[in-house]
Structure formats: C-alpha cells, structure tokens
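Input record (one chain):
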Amino acid sequence: MADERFLVVRLSSLGDIVHNLPAVSSLRDAFPHARIDWLVDCKWTALLDGNPDINEVIELDRGSWNALRVSVERLRSGHYTCAIDFQGLYKSALLSFLSGARRRVGFDRSMAREPGAAFFYTERVLPTSCHKVDHNLALAETVGARPTAYRFPLCVSRSASADVDRQIARNGVGEFFVVSPGGGWRWKCWPPERYGELCRELEQRLGWRAVVNCGPEETELGQAVCRAGQSAKPVLLATDVPQLIALLSRARLVIGGDTGPLHLAVALGTPVVGLYGPTDPARNGPFSAEDVVVRNARPGETTYKRQDAYSPAMLSISAEQVIRAVEKRLGARP
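The corresponding structure, as predicted from the sequence alone:
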C-alpha cells in the first residue's frame, strides 16, 4: 500500500545493522511504494549509504539534549503508520513510541535485550527461528513482508576504495587476508599471540600478507597481533566505516570472532572463517553455508555474558585448527 509509512529502528551496532538489512529488503519488496525510513546512530550511517530499500536515513545524535529533541521532532514529522524496533532496548522502544506511530512492533520481552522495552510495543513477536537475521525477518513479516531472497545492499565507495588502495600500496601489500581480533569483550576473542601464529603460517603457505583491522579503541590489540606476527609483517590499518567496507570487499579471506567486521565480510561475499567460543554460531554465526566456523565449546559453555578474560572455549582453539578451516573454506570457493 502506497500510504504505508514505516520507521525502522536499529540504532547500532555494525554486525546488528548488517543482520537487519535482509528484513528491510523484504519490507521493500512487499511495499514497493511505501515510505521506509531508518533511524540509526550517526556513527553507523555509512552502512546505509546508497541503500535502495530506504527512502531516508535519520541520524540519531545523542550529543546533547537539544540534538536529541531535534531527532524526535524529525521522527514525529514523518507521520509513520508503523514503527518496527529491531533493537529491543529501552531507548529504541521509547524512540519508536515518541515517533507517534500508532502501530509499534518489537520482540517479545523474552527476546528483547531489555525485557521492559516490550511495554512500548503494540505488537510483540516471538521468533521461532534461530539466527538473528531470521529473528529480524520475523518482525518484518509481522507487518506484511514476505520471505524473499536474502539481500545485503551495501555500497563500496569509490573514494574509500582509493584510500584503501593507497594504504595497501604504501605498505607494499599485494594479495592479502584480513584478521579481525576485536570483539567488544575479551570473553569471545582469540588471543593476539594465536593470530600472530596464524599470520605467519598463512603467509608461508599462501603467500598472502595479513592486514589487521581493529576498532578505534583496539589499537593496542592490533599492535600486539603485529608483534606476534613477526616475520609475516602484518599490516595494521585504521579505517572508517566506508574504508572498512572497501577493505573487506578486496580481501581474499577474513578471519575473526563473533564481531561486526566478520558479519560485514559475509554480507559482502568475502570468504570467512569464524572463531566462536561462548556465543552460538547458530544464532550469531556467518550467514552463509559456504563459510566455516571453528568452535570447541562444550555443552553448557554458551553464554552472552561480557567478561574481561579469554574464555576457555576460545583458548581451546588452536592455530592449526584455524588453518584447516581456512583450507576447507578456500577449497569450497566456486
């Protein structure tokens, strides 16, 4: 229906926004003439640049009360018929409510990250599928979307690609793979010494240099991987979001834990090997049948609690295990 006006609320973060893209694509397929706007934290707007399924990206600036007030006024001016909160937090649910949309759809309190957020919804959904991508699709289907082919409409910026090319050339790098050692909290990360060993072994076996990608607050972690890589001379590259998209799209392979860059690489079609410990790859793993997951977690070790130590499940993963997974993934390439 042309008069439908949808507000999509997914504020953050990188991997979660990527996992939300197919749901919005299915919404566009079902309502080709509707207005679909996306409310997102200003930090992540570049992920939605050029997305053909969205009419407008609304930046949420929480830098001051005045900026927040302006954002809410912008939402109310949209006269949305339906707000879909894919985030499941108090702040996202409240923003959905403040938009003025009479119909507000979100996850059941047992699924929401903050259960009380469900109070603000007029409809609550309890997905029966496992993966986060399918959880989001369940919300879209509740408002009338139909199952369609999964799409991840990401645009690679020409200027960002040129910036990455210059950085790669400046470091004398030819073919390369990317390692992403971060992960938000240490409990689901692999130690930098193991990544260093992996960089050395893959450089010898494949002849590819390692490019280390870390977030702005993970520079010391990236440097530790480079030191551990020694003779392989891994290159630490600092990127913004458009440059990260360009970098991952150019990589021959991406290796990392349950983190945003890994999910972004999957969406870009870059081969991936995921390292998983406490988090369940059936829920948060690479959304591609060709990609490979390494996991040794025992029954009862699955948890999403944030702890500042390496988990036994991640420490149990050896570099040789990851190398075998790399060989399997590259052998599966078409």
